[in-house]
Amino acid sequence: xxxxxxxTGQIFSGTLEQLGQVRAAVPVRRVRAIDEDGREWxxxxxxxxxxxxxxxxxxxxAVREYATASRADLERGPLYRAEQIMQRPVIVLRxxxxxxxxxxxxxxxxxxxxxxxxAAGRLAGLVSERNLLTALNVEDGVLRDVLxxxxxxxxxxxxxxxxxxxxxxRIARVMLDYGVDGVPVVDADHxxxxxxxxxxxxxxxxxxxxxxxxR
Length: 215
Hints:
Layout: E1 2-6, E2 9-14, H1 16-19, E3 51-52, E4 55-56, H2 58-75, E5 93-94, H3 99-108, E6 113-117, E7 123-128, H4 129-132, E8 137-139, E9 142-144, H5 151-154, E10 159-162, H6 168-178, E11 182-186, E12 192-197, H7 198-207
Parallel strand pairs: 5-6
Antiparallel strand pairs: 1-2, 1-10, 3-4, 6-7, 8-9, 11-12
């Protein structure tokens, strides 16, 4: 389930398929769909199969070891939902923060983007280093030529968010289709619960198996 939030609050709630029909969420770029879902081989090697496609020897042994490890991972329980990999607590900015303050917050926390909350604490947008650089210059880590701008003047809004129970694969689809590097996670009470970036998904794929992105 996805929602769209802007300066006036929630303006949409629905499925990924419905999201594409919302004018406020027109994709910035389209990506050709993958022809076939990726598949992860996790079956045991058949008895007597001493040869891999690379021939007998170390390759076949490596395949057997991978199959054993894969079965052990599956016993730990797969990762499906946003709430399982999202960052929390979330570093946030306020819509009325000045751009210099926002830059320092991103820099000090070594992050490249942050959700933006309005005066009532609701999600209003998303701001990135790229957004902030439209209102300031940085030379050797020092802020220069800072314009009198607020975060609300430069942030991306409205912004697509996901529910904590949303399938990770669908969040990855939104990132690809809408050209965004992160998706805020907002619960049923419209409270910001977490944040998922591209790197969070990649980290989960690499370091937190088993990730059932393709089933």
